[in-house]
Amino acid sequence: KQAEYEKQLEQLNKDNTASLKKKELTLKDVECKFSKMKTAYEDVTTELEEYKEAFAVALKANSSMSEKITKSDKKIAVISTKLFMEKERMEYFLSTLPMRPDPELPCVENLNSIELNRKYIPKMAIRIPTSNPQTSNNCKNSLTEVSYMTISLLGFISLI
User: Fold this and answer.
1) Which residue in 97, 137, 103 sits closest to 118, CA to CA?
2) Residues 56-87: b if buried by 16+ CB within 10 A, e if exposed
3) pLDDT, mean of each 10-residue run, the chain (160 residues)
4) Where is coiled-coil annotated (predicted)?
5) Residue 128 needs a FRET pair 20 to 30 A away by CA distance; which of 2, 70, 95, 115 works?
6) Cα 73 off chain centre by
7) CB 103 within 8 A of CB 118
């Protein structure tokens, strides 16, 4: 009976040892998985911090660009208003000028005497810019004010 108990005890010891080794392997496997997850978590946390920093830089750049765009929009609005007012002033000025020559002016007689056909005399005034064109090196202002001198062709020819 005792030999049988010893045999059973030896078998239980073998079973316990095998179970213990199996549990140790499982524990090592879980520890390995935990270590991999911890490393992955640290990597993700580091990457998240990098993204946060990049986002902060992008946000700062975006707000800076937004401020510049707002300033540019204000400048464009001011320049557009000035341009519109200048256009209106020029249209009014041009509308006050005679568009067709007076046939009784002495210069018209001179034109007729040199046999200049009236169909070549324009019916509208000629606009000649009086400022120098803007060079590519001087592009600080997005628009320069240009004043126009209006001369009728008939008046110009009478000066000759």
Assistant:
1) 103
2) eeeeeeeeeeeeeeeeeeeeeeeeeeeeeeee
3) 90 94 96 96 96 96 95 94 92 76 53 51 52 45 38 44
4) 2-54
5) 115
6) 12
7) no
98: amino acid identity, one letter = P
Residue 121 CB-density burial (10 A; 0-12 exposed, 13-18 middle, 19+ buried): middle
Could you give the CA distance from residue 83 to residue 66 in angstroms, rounded to a whole number? Answer: 25
Radius of gyration of the chain (CA): 47
What residue type is 108 in one-letter code?
Answer: V
For 36, how many CA atoms within 13 A lie in the half-sphere containing its CB?
6
| Cα–Cα dist 57/44, whole Å | 20
Structure tokens belonging to residue 122: 């324009």
Q: Tell me the C-alpha distance between 56 and 150, whole Å.
A: 56
